[in-house]
Specification:
There is one protein chain. With about 260 residues, the protein is an alpha+beta fold. The protein is about 20% helix and about 25% strand. About 35% of the residues are buried.
């Protein structure tokens, strides 16, 4: 009986190899790039869209609640100390801010400086325990310089003499810029009743704006100080500071 010979010369196909290490790494980098791009779109664009909608609704609601104001009528400056609004509840919107030197010159003002419940959704935030509009002391207000509506995007545009106006249901409070400076985050004395002099009793009416610095970084804080100039009764119209042509010198010069 003849033995069957085994053909040892038969060619065997190599098993197909899966993607190599470099291929897998490349796919991961592409995926990471897509995710990063989506995050940047969300962070730099979509947060602005959502915040703008929310803040527009807030402003519309305030106008309905407070009643219309004659934006064509210039109200006279009032004598005597200004009225001081009641202490607002936490996260409550109690006013609007008008900064003519800003591209976006009107936005809501709420109580508190929390990110999720105030700064990311409602606009500017009033530091609790600091003075209220019209009160002796330092009305201190924080806002985003980029993302989430970026209400203080143009803060570096402000120059001495530029008006910053707070509107409540009763009055307009006009402050005028005195100086700008850059400090470290821990330099909280800038929002003291007397800015830069913690422990000293206030005798003047001041206002301070704070925002992160430089743009797209929280390494430092950009600070603007202002002093009270005058107030007007909301029922009489708008203050001269908000009339056409009174936006301040910096509005014509542009900004950062």
């Amino acid at each position: 009986m003849t033995a069957r010979r085994t053909d040892t010369s038969r060619t065997h196909r190599a098993a197909p190899r899966g993607p190599g290490v470099l291929g897998v790494l490349g796919e991961l980098l592409v995926t990471a790039g897509v995710l990063l791009g989506l995050f940047l779109v969300w962070q730099l664009w979509w947060t602005d869209v959502m915040a703008d909608r929310e803040q527009a609704d807030i402003l519309s609601g305030l106008e309905q609640e407070w009643g219309d104001v004659d934006r064509e009528q210039i109200a006279p400056a009032q004598d005597g100390p200004p009225p001081v609004p009641a202490t607002p509840g936490d996260t409550m919107v109690f006013g609007t801010m008008h900064v003519p030197a800003f591209d976006r010159e009107t936005f809501p003002l709420a109580e508190g400086v929390g990110l999720e419940d105030v700064l990311n959704v409602k606009g500017a935030g009033h530091y609790p325990e600091t003075a209220l509009p019209g009160e002796v002391g330092n009305v201190s207000i924080a806002g985003h310089r980029n993302t989430y509506g970026r209400v203080f995007e143009d803060i570096a545009r402000l120059q001495p003499g530029d008006p910053i106006v707070i509107e409540t249901d009763e009055a307009f409070y006009v402050y005028e810029v005195t100086e700008s400076l850059v400090v470290m985050p821990q330099d909280v004395e800038v929002i003291a009743p007397v800015p830069g002099e913690p422990g000293v009793e206030a005798t003047d009416r001041m206002l301070t704006l704070t925002a992160c610095h430089p743009m797209f970084s929280a390494r430092e804080r950009y600070i603007v100080h202002a002093e009270f100039a005058y107030w007007t009764d909301r029922a009489d119209g708008i203050p001269e500071a908000l009339s056409d042509g009174s936006a301040g010198s910096a509005a014509e010069e542009g900004g950062n």
